[in-house]
Write a structure and sequence with these properties.
Chain lengths: 373, 313
């Protein structure tokens, strides 16, 4: 109804009330607690923290609850909250080699120092609906047998390869040029790898997944091997100027993926393996793997490859990876556009009138000679 | 009582936002971008756009610009499609009422800052007013060249041939320049600029306008500006001069001519009326006793229904 557009204020208020009511649903069903969400929907929480760019499980759980399970909406809530937080500084680089590992697998070695640790995973499970879960009570907790934690060091696979010179070295950080931050400086192109990785870490899981998949199907092949995927807890440290040393702020759970890719080498560089890198909050392997594959694809220029696929196109990938931006702009089409539509209506009507006029003239022109005969 | 999580205190302390939501550092950053934009009319200044509590594409650029320039004594008018009571205008006005507590108005003459989407008020603006535009795609060359690296180069070299070719092709194909809104302009004889998706009807208004014009694109992270009394020329050809839309009829409610009209469909039998898109302008005229040809129509009572709930009789 037209009135709905005009009398916006009241309608908006009521719509929000109705949303709140629908969010809660049937009040005879107990409301979700944030702990339930944080504990039992951990992958949702990880995704919202990652794409929302804010590590806080409780707030992510709140966002998921408020967004009625719409994870992009929840990530948006996190972003909007994050932007209001004061910025004290930047943490020191985290050391994923020192991770308290819960899961660590390598697809390139059968066994390796530290071993393969399967940990919690959907892999190798049969995707059969577990009707026992449908029961109110999940049943007694099953005892889980865990491997002995013998405090054996768990070096990263890429470091093992690097020792032999087979893996390109990690780029050395340059103290002079600080790491970029696209939340503080607008992204400009060409974007360096620091900004690209930051962008991908915040990027939409589905978008990155599709791009990574496209490279596997021939749109810019990168010959990837999952060198290592590890998930666990790491400490985040902050260098306090006043103290003169780094203090631990706390621990976060992250998933790291190091993709090992082939590289033929060149006149300047001996053949080595190259890497694609992925690091995301929480347990989010699909995202970490996709990120590392897209990261590798975006490195075509420095490795002297030919650009030929969407996943290699830095502007295309980085400009469209952010789902908060994407959803906002796509959904803004719901806003009234009738002023512009009116302008188009006017033009199309005019062009149609001219078209019919022209056709009529043509028909008359064709009819006239016949009449003359 | 369920143990609903240990929510950190910070969650409950929310509500204590800075004046006009943004922190002062961010406002300073935005003001620097605005000043640069004013110094180089029509040039798109990159700025570190923040995530706002409304979605990208829903006015985050305009809101950030307004927040950065808003003072306690300002009086804010918020319009969308020319009207104060379209849903998003209501929502954004509410945002500033809540976070800044400034006075708001629907009257164009009363406002010191007017934030708008898709329209420029019919009433001539003054030097002591600022017009803030919400911009979805700031780059006028974007649809011709999708790459930012390329378009920035084209602006730097003042290489606008592509745009003229596009307009020429329009004429060759359709007999008209088929751009009806977001019609490109050249500012101060230098930069080609997108005047945001206002209908081209409004383009003459931005030429040598007395008020300062600020354009904010949040998602695309760009701010640009047109200082007061700056020359703004709509692109055209000598033999195909720029022209604005013409309406055959006056406003059905207030009888205004030479204003932009919205078409309102009244029934499914082809009944329609045209009314002022600028709702404040229309109301003021009606208050002054101007009556349009359809003012007495029952439909007019519904369409012309004002915010106060009065019907036009």
């Amino acid at each position: 109804m037209y009135v709905a557009v005009k009398g916006g204020e009241k309608a908006i208020r009521n719509a929000h009330k109705l949303t709140a009511k629908r969010r809660r649903g049937d009040t005879s069903v107990p409301a979700l607690t944030l702990e339930q969400i944080a504990q039992q929907l951990a992958h949702s929480v990880a995704r919202v923290m990652g794409e929302g760019s804010l590590y806080d499980e409780t707030l992510a759980a709140l966002a998921i609850k408020q967004a009625r399970g719409d994870l992009i909406e929840a990530a948006f809530l996190m972003r909007a909250y994050r932007t209001t937080l004061p910025r004290f500084g930047y943490s020191t680089p985290v050391d994923t080699g020192a991770m308290l590992v819960e899961r660590r697998i390598s697809a390139t070695y059968k066994d390796l120092p530290g071993g393969q640790v399967l940990g919690p995973t959907f892999d190798y499970s049969h995707r059969l609906l577990d009707f026992a879960l449908a029961a109110e009570d999940d049943g007694a907790e099953q005892p889980v047998e865990m491997a002995e934690n013998d405090d054996q060091a768990m070096p990263r696979v890429t470091d093992l390869l690097g020792d032999e010179g087979l893996m390109e070295p990690d780029p050395v950080s340059d103290e002079e040029t600080p790491v970029g931050d696209l939340t503080r400086e607008p992204l400009s192109f060409p974007a360096d790898r620091d900004l690209r990785l930051q962008n991908l870490a915040r990027g939409d899981e589905g978008f990155l997944l599709a791009l990574a998949y496209s490279t596997q199907r021939g749109y810019g092949r990168t010959h990837p091997f999952a060198g290592e995927i590890r998930y666990g807890e790491i400490e985040v440290e902050f260098f306090a100027e006043e103290l003169g040393f780094a203090v631990t702020l706390g621990t976060i759970k992250v998933t790291e993926c190091q993709m090992v890719n082939q590289f033929a080498g060149s006149a300047q560089a001996a053949p080595t393996f190259t890497r694609g890198y992925g690091l995301v909050f929480g347990q989010a392997e699909r995202k970490a793997m996709s990120m590392s594959m897209v990261d590798r694809s975006l490195r075509w220029q420095e490795l002297g490859e030919e650009p030929m696929a969407p996943a290699q196109d830095v502007e295309f990938v980085l400009s469209h990876s952010d789902n908060i931006q994407a959803t906002g702009f796509v959904e803004h089409l719901k806003l009234p556009h009738y002023v512009d539509f009116q302008a188009e209506l006017d033009l199309v009507r005019r062009m149609r009138a001219e078209w019919f006029e022209k056709r009529q003239q043509q028909e008359q022109g064709e009819a006239a000679p016949e009449a003359a005969q | 009582m369920t143990d609903t999580a240990q929510i950190p205190d910070s969650v409950h302390e929310q509500g204590e936002y800075n004046f006009a939501y943004l922190d002062e550092q961010t406002k300073r950053m935005i003001r620097r971008a605005i000043l640069k934009g004013i110094a180089i009319p029509g040039y798109q200044v990159p700025f570190a756009s923040r995530e706002m509590p409304m979605p990208y594409g829903w006015g985050t650029g305009g809101v950030q610009v307004t927040a950065a320039i808003l003072g306690k004594s300002d009086c804010l008018k918020m319009i969308d499609q020319g009207s104060d009571d379209t849903t998003n205008a209501v929502s954004l006005r509410g945002f500033f009422e809540k976070t800044a507590g400034v006075r708001t108005t629907c009257e164009t003459a009363e406002a010191t800052i007017i934030q708008t989407r898709h329209r420029i008020p019919e009433k001539t603006l003054r030097e002591d007013q600022i017009l803030v535009f919400q911009v979805p795609i700031p780059e006028p060359l974007r649809y011709l060249e999708p790459r930012e690296t390329e378009t920035r180069k084209m602006h730097a070299l003042e290489d606008y041939g592509l745009m003229h070719v596009k307009l020429y092709e329009d004429i060759a194909k359709n007999g008209h320049i088929a751009t009806t809104y977001a019609y490109p302009v050249k500012v101060n004889d230098r930069y080609v600029m997108d005047p945001s998706p206002t209908p081209k009807f409004d383009n003459p208004k931005i030429d040598r306008m007395a008020a300062l014009q600020l354009y904010g694109a949040g998602r695309e992270k760009r701010i640009y500006a047109i200082p007061p009394y700056t020359k703004v020329k709509s692109l055209d050809f000598e033999d195909y001069p720029f022209e604005i839309q013409q309406f055959d009829k006056p406003c059905g409610l207030c009888g205004a001519e030479n204003v932009y009209l919205d078409e309102v469909i009244l029934d499914d039998k082809g009944g329609r009326m045209f009314v002022c898109s600028d709702s404040d302008y229309c109301e003021e005229r009606r208050a002054d006793g101007h009556l349009g040809p359809m003012a007495a129509d029952p439909a007019a009572a519904r369409v012309g229904n004002t915010k106060t709930g009065e019907t036009v009789r």
